[in-house]
Design goal:
Elements (H helix, E strand, L loop, with lengths): L2 H14 L19 H27 L5 E6 L3 E6 L5 H23 L3 H29 L1
Helix pairs in contact: 2-3, 2-4, 3-4
Length: 143
């Protein structure tokens, strides 16, 4: 019973059956927008950015408070207070980060620097998720 060899063959078959469709496939000659990792990372980043924009807009549109807490520190308590519209700046910053990293990733992908492009795209996912968590925390603190 050579289980390791069988598993290795199964994995190799999984990613070689459709050579251009798999995540681990050689992406030479695949356009930026046709790459699976690029599409997935941009879709995930845009999804969390859209959630961030919707949550922050709904919070601002509710308009029940004149001044809200913008930053809370565990040691000192409330550090920064401001107007409710300032919560939208977090969404704008995350959107700008996603846009700039997407443009840089496309440029690097065209220069055959695939790993650098993937790092930029994955950092955009992290920034969008972080903005979503921050907006959620701000809404929770101010509710």
């Amino acid at each position: 019973m050579n289980f390791g060899l069988q598993m290795n063959q199964k994995i190799r078959f999984l990613f070689s059956r459709y050579p251009r469709a798999g995540l681990l496939a050689d992406d030479e000659g695949v356009l930026f927008w046709n790459n699976t990792l690029v599409r997935a990372s941009l879709a995930i980043g845009l999804f969390f950015l859209l959630l961030t924009v919707i949550f922050s807009y709904l919070f601002v549109a509710r308009g029940t408070q004149d001044i809200i807490v913008l930053h809370y520190n565990a040691y000192f308590g409330v550090d920064i207070v401001g107007n409710p519209w300032q919560i939208l700046l977090l969404s704008v910053g995350a959107g700008a980060f996603l846009l700039i990293n997407g443009m840089l990733a496309r440029k690097l992908y065209g220069m055959h620097e695939r790993v650098a492009a993937y790092i930029l795209l994955f950092s955009s996912i992290f920034a969008s998720i972080s903005a979503f968590v921050a907006i959620s925390a701000l809404i929770f603190i101010n509710s």
